[in-house]
Amino acid sequence: MTEREDIADLKQEIKRLRKLVAQGAPGLESLLKQRGFRIYKKEPEDDLVLPELGAIEEFFRRMKKYSFRLFLRDVIKFQDGFTIERLARYATPEVTKEYTKFLRTHGLVEQIGEGFRLKRRPVRSFGTTLEWFLAEVFKREFLTEALWGVKFRKIESGGDYDLIAKINGSILYMEAKSSPPKQVYDREIAAFLNRIEDLHPALAIFFMDTELRMKDKIVPFFEEEMKQRNKEPSHVVRMEKELFHIADRIFIINAAGSIVANIEKALQWYFRNKC
Q1: pLDDT band at residue 243 under the 50/70/90 scheme
Q2: Residue 172 in contact with residue 164, Cβ under 8 Å?
Q3: Which of the ends of the chain has fewer CB neighbours closer than 10 A, N or C?
Q4: In this structure, are residues 129 and 72 in contact, taking their beta carbons and an 8 Å threshold?
Q5: Neighbours of 46 (CB within 10 A)
Q6: How far apart are CA 128 and CA 121, in angstroms?
Q7: How confident is the model at residue 68 (pLDDT cuts 50, 70, 90)?
Q8: Helical spans, DSSP H, in 51-185
Q9: How far from 113 is each of 74, 100, 116, 250, 269, CA to CA, in Å?
């Protein structure tokens, strides 16, 4: 047996052992109930844009690409009618044409005249599909339970929790923003921190699906909100590039480079410094 085959076997054994450990530990919904949180709604499908079942794997793979997510966001924005030329803002016309062909082949868009439109309408935003994708990232890449679009009854902070995952026997909460930084306001940062105070997760991630800078607008929002809440507020500290943390527990990240890699960096930082 070659060294590569040995490594592949070890990876499979690690996956098997992780599943066994997970089966013997309380599930995510059980952990939430222990904290007094009972789910009454989760994973709404009204605004979810997904292909037919046989194409889910390929769709997930494509969603890892920033250009495809931007393209899909524009498909939803111009859902009643668009052309290749209109959507070729973030990728070449050839790539945009290939993206459109994939959506058409798998039942997401249909042709109308010389253009196309989203087949199932209306869809309010890309946010629901982004939440689905992030939950799949935790399930597939980190082999853990994850729920998205979660609503609880009688929660002071209100609203929904975009993503909740089980991490090391505890809870991770993630807020996902599909809008660029200029469309995010301080009240949304306040709502994120309020939900943390209600849920008391082990760690929380504020994620923006952008490759733009976080330091210019988003980080100052967090700094100001922390000052209003605490006499001696924890500082927002840069981990690297546009990845930041507050007290090794709250993380502010974007999509630059790789969503999976950035989430992994946040998790590694947490386990190295907080556990």
Answers
A1: very high
A2: yes
A3: N
A4: yes
A5: 10
A6: 14
A7: very high
A8: 56-63, 66-77, 84-87, 93-105, 127-141
A9: 19, 15, 8, 49, 52
Higher pLDDT, 52 or 205: 205
Q: Output 18 or 174, whichever has higher pLDDT.
A: 174
pLDDT digit string (tens) for 185-200?
A: 999 999 999 999 999 9
- Fill in the amino acid letter for 84: I
Looking up tokens 């629901």, which residue turns up?
128
Q: Which residue has the tokens 């109308």?
A: 112
**Beta-bridge partner residues of 219:** none
* SS (HEC) of 156-220: CCCCCEEEEEEECCEEEEEEEECCCHHHCCHHHHHHHHHHHHHHCCCEEEEEECCCCCCCCCHHH
User: Which residues fall within 8 angstroms of residue 217, CB to CB, at 6 or more apart?
Assistant: 181, 182, 184
